[in-house]
Amino acid sequence: MGWLGPAELEALRLSLRVSFWATLVTLPFGIFVAYALARWRFPGRQLLNGLVHLPLILPPVVTGYLLLLTFGIQGPLGKLLAELGIVVAFRWTGAALAAGIMAFPLMVRAIRLSIEAVDPKLEQAGATLGASRLFVFATVTLPMILPGVIAGAILAFAKAMGEFGATITFVSNIPGQTQTLPSAVYAFLQVPGGENAATRLVVVSIIIAMGALLLSEYVGRRAAERVSGS
Amino acid sequence: MGWLGPAELEALRLSLRVSFWATLVTLPFGIFVAYALARWRFPGRQLLNGLVHLPLILPPVVTGYLLLLTFGIQGPLGKLLAELGIVVAFRWTGAALAAGIMAFPLMVRAIRLSIEAVDPKLEQAGATLGASRLFVFATVTLPMILPGVIAGAILAFAKAMGEFGATITFVSNIPGQTQTLPSAVYAFLQVPGGENAATRLVVVSIIIAMGALLLSEYVGRRAAERVSGS
Amino acid sequence: ASEVLVFAAASLKNALDKIGSDFERRTGHEVTVSYAASSVLARQIQLGAPADVFISANVDWMDVLQDQDQIKANTRVDLLGNRLVLIGGPDQTGVGEIRADMDLSAALDGGHLAMALVDAVPAGIYGKAALQNLALWEEVQSQIAQTDNVRAALALVATGAAPLGIVYRSDAQVEERVQVLGTFPSDLHLPIIYPAAVTTWGRPEAQAFLTYLQSGPAREVFADQGFALPGS
Amino acid sequence: MSLSVRLQHELPDMQLDLSFDAPPGVTVLFGRSGSGKTTVVNAVAGLLRPAAGRVAVDGWELFDTEQGLWLPPHRRRLGYIFQEGRLFPHLTVRQNLSYGRWFAPKGARRENPDKVIEMLGIGHMLNRRPAGLSGGEKQRVAIGRALLASPRLILADEPLAALDDARKAEILPYFERLRDEVSVPILYVTHAAAEVARLATSVVALQDGKVVRHGPASDVLADPSVAPAGVRAVGAVLQVKVCEHHADGLTELDAGGARLFLPRIPHQIGEDLRIRIPAQEVILSNKRPEGLSALNMLEGVVDSIRAGEGPGAIVSVKTPAGPILARVTRRSVAALGLEPGCVCFAVIKTVALAPQDVGGRLNAS
Amino acid sequence: MSLSVRLQHELPDMQLDLSFDAPPGVTVLFGRSGSGKTTVVNAVAGLLRPAAGRVAVDGWELFDTEQGLWLPPHRRRLGYIFQEGRLFPHLTVRQNLSYGRWFAPKGARRENPDKVIEMLGIGHMLNRRPAGLSGGEKQRVAIGRALLASPRLILADEPLAALDDARKAEILPYFERLRDEVSVPILYVTHAAAEVARLATSVVALQDGKVVRHGPASDVLADPSVAPAGVRAVGAVLQVKVCEHHADGLTELDAGGARLFLPRIPHQIGEDLRIRIPAQEVILSNKRPEGLSALNMLEGVVDSIRAGEGPGAIVSVKTPAGPILARVTRRSVAALGLEPGCVCFAVIKTVALAPQDVGGRLNAS
Ligand SMILES: Nc1ncnc2c1ncn2[C@@H]1O[C@H](COP(=O)(O)OP(=O)(O)OP(=O)(O)O)[C@@H](O)[C@H]1O
Ligand SMILES: Nc1ncnc2c1ncn2[C@@H]1O[C@H](COP(=O)(O)OP(=O)(O)OP(=O)(O)O)[C@@H](O)[C@H]1O
Ligand SMILES: [Mg+2]
Ligand SMILES: [Mg+2]
C-alpha cells in the first residue's frame, strides 16, 4: 500500500482498530439482546426493540449528537465512565462506541433471526438431559446460531468501517485518535480535486470490507455445514 | 401534527412516499437475490454478494456520488432511463432509488437468513408432490419465510426513512422534490436556532419508524405463528 | 410566474428562507432552495443539476464551476462575508480582539479546540490560516477537534465537550450555551466570501433573484443573521 | 416389469450397487437399519442423484445416466410418504392433503378425498396445523397427502411405523386396493413381517447397499434364511375362495377342495383371496388328531424337511390346499418319525389365521 | 409407588384428566394415536406445564401445582427418548452421547458407554453428525444419549418404532436390565404388543386423555377387552426357572413342576424368568393328545370361559405351572364340551414360545 500516505495509513489502522473493538465488545450484548428479544416475553420488550433500532432510523448526525449529550465529558454516562477511568470523549474508544452503537441494530437483527430459526425442541432436549438454561444456550443454541452470529459480527464490522456521521459528531476527527477512514474520505471530498485521494481510500475500505464479507461467508458456511452435518 | 409547518409536512409526506416505493420496488429483487445467494451456487456469487453489501460499507456520501455519476443526467444509466422516460435525477424517484439501494443489503440479509432456515426437505416434499421449483417457492418457501420478508421489508423501510447521506448527495435537497425528513433535519441543524425544528422532525421520524417496527413485529409474529402452527 | 431553483450552502438556510418568501411575495416567482454542503451542490451542478442560482460558502467551488463554464461568469458576485470568532462556555472570560500574545493553551487547559475540518471545510481552513498567522497553530495543533461542519464544532462547545471553539459569528450568536470570547482580525485569513452566480442554464428569473439578494431588504436580513456585508 | 431400478452410488460408509426388476404390485425393500433403503427410495424420487443408474416405471424412464436423462422430482408423478412426515407446517391439514392435487394432470385417476380422510381418521383435524398433531396423526396426514397426489408410483418409507395396530389394520387394505384395483406400483420400506406378508408382491432384501435376495413374496417368505423377520416370518401363502359365513362368527374357505375355518372376514362369498399360514402356527401329527380345539386339519404328504441352525426345522407338506409349511423342533421330527413321503396331518388353529394375514387377490407369484 | 402421576390439562381437541400410581419397573402408556401419550410424557418431563397436577418419582416430587412446586426440566434428572429423535445436529454422535454425562451428579450410577454403544451398534458412526444418519441410526443414538445421562427416570416415547426386528430384539433386554438390575423407573410409550408383554410391569391404557384401564401387565394382558393390541395380544404370564439346555437346541424350563421346552434362550441355568404364553398359541384337547409335533402339554382344569363378541372365547385353565389362557373358537368349546371344572390339556408349540416373549425376572404382579 505504498500509494497511501502516512496519514492515510494511520486512518486505516485506526479504522481497523475501532471497528474490531466496536464489534468485539458489542457482540456479547448483541447476542444477549437478540436472545432476549427472540425468546423472552417481558414488559418493555418492544421498548428495548425500538431502542436498539434507533440508530438505524435516526440520521447519524442526530445519533452522534445524542451520544455527545450522554457520553460527552459533561454527559451523565460520560461522567460515570470517567469516574471508572474510561474516557471516551475524543478518544478512539469513543469512535468505537459510536461505531458499535450504529452497528448494533444490524448485529442484533442478524443474530435474532438465527435464534428464531433454532427449534426450541432441541433446547428442550438439552434441558431434559440436565443442562441448565445457560448451559443449553452455550452448548446448543450458540453453536447452532454461530453462522448468524458470524454474519452479524462481520456485518457490524463492515458497518463500523463505514460509519461516519455519528462518529465525527461525537468524537470529532482528530488524526491518530478519531480520524477514521470515512472521515478522511469525507475531508477529501470537500475540497475541489480531492476525488483521487478519496477514491484511493474508498478502494481500500472496499477491499477490507469485501475481505471481511468473504471471510464471513466462508466461516459461516463452514459453521452451517457443521450444524447441518457436513 | 399541527406543530409541523407545511414544508415539514411536505418533507414527511415525501419521505413516506420515497420509503414506501423504495421498499416495494426493491422487495422482489431482494427476495430473488436473497434466494439466489442462499440456495444457488454459481460463478460470481461472491461478487454479487459483495455488490449487494457495498452500500452498507461505503460512506453514504460515496454511494451518493457514485449514484450521481451513473444515474445522473449525464450518467450512462441515467441516460438510458431517461430514454425510457424515467428521470431519476433530482426527482423523488431518485430519492427512492438512493433509499432503496441503501436499504437493499439489510433487506437481502434478513430474507436470506430466513431462507437458509427453511429445511430443504420440505421443498423436496413439495417437488415430489408435483410442484415445479417456482411453485415450490411460491407455496412452500415464500410462506415460510414470510416473517423474514416482513422483517426485512420493514427494516428497509425504516432505513429508507432515515437515509440521508446518499440521498442528499445524489438528488440534492429540493423541497417538495427530494427534501426528505432527514434532509430537512440536516438543513435545520446547519443554521443557528434550527434545533427545535430539527427535534420535532426527529420525533416524527422516530414515531413512524417505531410504528413500522411494532407493526413488523406483530405481523411477523402472526406469520411465524401461522408457520409453526398457532 | 415562474420558478427559481437555488442551490445554497446550508449555513444560509435561515436567511434565505426569509428572503425567498419575500421575493415570492413581491414577484410571484416561486423560489425553491436546496441546502447542502457547498461541495455537494457544486458537484451536482457539475453533473447537470437543474439549479438556476448557486450560492457557495467559499470561493474555491465557485472557481471550479466558473472554470468549467457552468456559471455565467458575469453574474458572479461576492454576496456575503462573515467573521471568525472564538467561542467558549459561559464561565469563560472574553478577550475582545484576538492577538498573537493570547495564551490559547492556558485557556484550553488541556481540553480541545473545536473547529470544522481544517483542510476541507471553509471555516476550518480560515481558522487554521488565522492560527498560523498568529503563530498559535503549532501550539494547539494537537488539541484541535475537527468536525464535518461548523455547527458540529459549535455543539462540542455548547455541550461542554470542548472548552473553546472557532466558528462563524453568524453561528455563534444564537447558541445560548456559548459566548463569543473574541473575534479574529479579518486580515489573518483569506477573506470569508460567499460568492453567488447564475448557472449557465439558469432561467431569466434567476438574475432577478440574484439582484434581489443584493437589495436593501435582503441585506437587512443577512445582517440580522450575523453575516458581514461586503462594501459596508 | 413395472419397476426397474439400477443404481450405483458412493456413500461415506458404503457402496450402493444394486439392480432389481420388480413385477407390478408392491415391492418391499427390506434390510437392517442403515442398509440403504431410504437412499434407494430417494434416488427413485429424484432427491438424490446417483453416480450411475437407471430407473423406469412401467417402461417410463425417470432417469438414465447413460442417456443423460434426468426427470426432476416434480415431473415424476410420485406419492412419497417420508419416514419423517415432512408436512408443510404453514398449511392446515386440509391444505396439506390437497397440495398434490393442484399438480395432478387433468385425466389422472383421482382418489376420493373424503374416503381417504375417513380411512385415515383425520376428518376432525382438517383445520389444524401440523405442529398441533401427535406423531401418529402427522404420519396419517402424510399418507393421505401422498395418496391424493394421483401418483403413478407410490414410495412409502416405513409409513406405518408410528401407527397403532388398529390403525395399521385399517390402512393396510388401502395399500392393497391401490395394488390390486388401481395397480399403482408401490415401493414400500418396512420392517414389519405382517406388512411384508400381506402387501409384498416381491421382496428385495438389502444389506450394505447390495441386494442379497430378491423374489416373489411367497418364495422369500418361505425361505427362513432370507425371510425378512427371520424364521418367525416363514409361512406358506395359499390361494383360497370364500365359501360361507357361519352364524358363530367363522368364515369357511375352500382351499383346493379342503376346508379352512377362520374368524369372520369382510370378504364376499365367492371372492378369491390369498392367505398366509405362518409356519410356526402349524402343528404336525402323524395320526388324525382327535379332541383338539383346532378346527383346521389338512392331510398331506411330507415333501421336504429343512433343518436350520437352531433347534427347529421347516417341514413342507403337500396338501390338496397347496404346500403348507410347518416349523417344528428337530426333536419332534425325530419323535414323529417324519420323513419325505410320510403321510401326516397339519393342524392349524382357527384363531391363528389372523385377518392381517388375509389379503386381496394374489396377483403375482 | 415409584411413579405417581396426576394431571389435568386442556388441549384443543380434548381434556386431559388422569391419575395413576405405578409400581417400580416399566409403566407402559398405551393408547391410540392422539390419545395423549406424548402429552403425559411431556408433562412428566416438565416440557409442558399442566393446568393442575402432581408428579413424583420414588416419592421425590417433580411438581405439584397445589404446593406451587415446579422443578425445571434440567433438575429432573431424566432420560427422555423423544418420538422424533431430537439429536443435536451440530454435535457428532459421540458428543451427542456424552451430552448428558456432563450434568450427571458425581455419585450417580453410570452406564458403561462402550457397552451401550456396542449394544446399539453405533460404534462405527461415532464421528459422524446426525444429518448423515438413517432414520433408525438416529433413533439408536437418541436411545444411547438418554441412557448415558444417568437418569433417575427414563421416558421413552415409541423408542423402537423406527428399528428393525433384529435391532429391537437386541435393545429390549437393555431396558429390562434397567428395570430389573438398576431399577430405574421407566415410562414407556409403545404400540407393540411384544414390547408391552415383555417390558411392562404395569400398563396404563389411555383413551381421549383419560385412563381407561390400569393394572399389572399380566392382568391387563389377560383381559381381551383392554389388551393393548386387542384380543391377539391376550396371554398368560408364567414364572419359570431354567432347568437345562439340551444339545438339540432346546431349553427346558420348570414351571411349577411342569416342564416346558422352548428354543434355546441365553439365560443361565437356575435363573428365574417370566414367560408370556400368548392365548392364541394354545390349543386345548379333551384327551391327552398323541403323535403331535408340539412338545409342551400341560394338564389342568378349566377355570372359566369368557366368550367375546367375535367367534372366539378365552378359556382359562388352572395348571400346575399357573393359569394358562387359551383362545379358541366358540365352536370348539362346544365341540369339546369344555366347561368349568373339566379336565383338559393345553398344547403349546415349542417354537411358538418366541424369545421376545421371554423376559427377566418378574418383579411385580
Ligand atoms: N402443541 C399442540 N397444540 C395443539 N394440540 C396438540 C398439541 N400437541 C398435541 N396436541 C393434540 O393433543 C392430542 C394428544 O397428542 P399426543 O401427542 O399426546 O398424542 P399421542 O398419544 O402421543 O399420539 P401418537 O401415538 O400419534 O404420538 C392430539 O389430539 C393432538 O392433536
Ligand atoms: N446425507 C448423508 N450423508 C452421509 N451418509 C448418509 C447420508 N444419508 C444416509 N447416509 C448413510 O447411508 C447409509 C444408508 O442410509 P439410509 O438412510 O438409506 O438407511 P435405511 O436403510 O433407510 O435405514 P433406516 O431403516 O434406519 O431408515 C447409512 O449408513 C447412513 O448413515
Ligand atoms: Mg430409512
Ligand atoms: Mg406421541
TrEMBL record, chains A, B:
Lineage, top-rank taxon, reads Bacteria
Q: Which GO terms describe its cellular component?
A: plasma membrane
Query: According to its record, how does it sit in the membrane?
Result: Multi-pass membrane protein
Q: Does the keyword Heme apply?
A: no
The Gene Ontology terms for molecular function here are:
molybdate ion transmembrane transporter activity
Q: Which Pfam families match?
A: BPD_transp_1
Q: List the InterPro entries hit by this protein, alphabetically.
A: MetI-like, MetI-like_sf, ModB_ABC
Enumerate the UniProt keywords alphabetically.
Cell inner membrane, Cell membrane, Membrane, Molybdenum, Transmembrane, Transmembrane helix, Transport
Q: Outline what the protein does.
A: Part of the binding-protein-dependent transport system for molybdenum; probably responsible for the translocation of the substrate across the membrane.
By sequence similarity, the record places it as follows: Belongs to the binding-protein-dependent transport system permease family. CysTW subfamily.
The protein's name in its UniProt record = Molybdenum transport system permease
**Species for this entry:** Ruegeria meonggei
UniProtKB/TrEMBL annotation, chains D, E:
Q: Where is the Mop domain?
A: 291-357
Query: GO MF annotations for this entry?
Result: ABC-type transporter activity; ATP binding; ATP hydrolysis activity; molybdate ion transmembrane transporter activity
Give the residues annotated as coiled coil.
none
* Superkingdom: Bacteria
Any one GO CC term of the record: membrane
Q: What is its EC class?
A: hydrolase
EC numbers, comma separated: 3.6.3.25
Supply the Pfam families for this chain.
ABC_tran (PF00005), TOBE (PF03459)
InterPro entries linked to this entry: AAA+_ATPase (IPR003593), ABC_transporter-like_ATP-bd (IPR003439), ABC_transporter-like_CS (IPR017871), Mo/tungstate-bd_C_term_dom (IPR008995), ModC_ABC_ATP-bd (IPR011868), Molybdenum_import_ModC (IPR050334), Mop_domain (IPR004606), P-loop_NTPase (IPR027417)
All copies of the ABC transporter domain together span 5-233
- Keyword terms of this UniProt record: ATP-binding, Cell inner membrane, Cell membrane, Hydrolase, Membrane, Molybdenum, Nucleotide-binding, Translocase, Transport
Q: Please state what the protein is called.
A: Sulfate/thiosulfate import ATP-binding protein CysA
Q: Which organism is it from?
A: Ruegeria meonggei
Q: Give the gene symbol.
A: cysA
